[in-house]
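Hi Y.,

Following your request, here is the sequence exactly as I used it, all 261 residues.
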Amino acid sequence: MIQRLSDMNLPRFPLLSEKEMMDLLHKAQNGDIEARERLINCNLKLIFNLIQRFAHRGYELEDLFQIGTIGLIKAIDKFDFSYGVKFSTYAVPMIIGEIRRFLRDDHPIKVPRSYKELVYKINRSREKLSIELKRDPTVNEIASDLGIDSEDVIIALEAVQSPASIHDTLYQDDSDPIYVLDQLPLDKESNPGWFEKIALKEVLDKLPERERHVLLLRFFEDKTQSEIAKTMNLSQVQISRIERAALHRLRQILSDDSEGG
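Below is the corresponding structure, written out as tokens. Let me know if you'd prefer a different format.
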């Protein structure tokens, strides 16, 4: 286990006085890249001290150190001088919060260390170029800055993406959400569903015309909600609500028929 900052082969930088810290923060927030780099380098010991409390979480401290550095960068960019506090007082919860967020959201699929390191460099490059260009840099600009192919940037970023769940929310207003599942066409061969097992004509005829039309398009023509919305000149949110209402009504009809039988 790494016990000292020197074990990480990082250069040593002198501690800054509070006045020097504030001067550099003003310059960094005004776009001075050298001031920003010096602030980062001179606060490496702060990051190192903070990651020690996460030493027994099953992660390499080098990885946590990189995550902590991202928290430090955010603290530099977002530091509010009106708070009247020392920078370290502001930075500590930002760094710890970034590490805790990483531990909470860490990917269930393990990503090779080389990709993690490249993504770290990509994020640093993106931060730097955003300040220089005063806009988000393109993939090609990041690749050029790092001296690598743009394909390598894309592959590395995709490698660390969390896998999506079919129950992830794609959109939500003040009513029902739309899930990834709602956008997937149904496969009749592999998933016949419960529609084929009931007296469809009789049951569907009991639905209002618009609800019946949506269900026929959705479950018999394998249309997504987006496709149905275009066909019916409605919004996707409206189609989602109609579908949910129709399914609820169908369940109620089936339940009533079952109790009556």
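The radius of gyration is 27 Å.

Thanks again,
Q.
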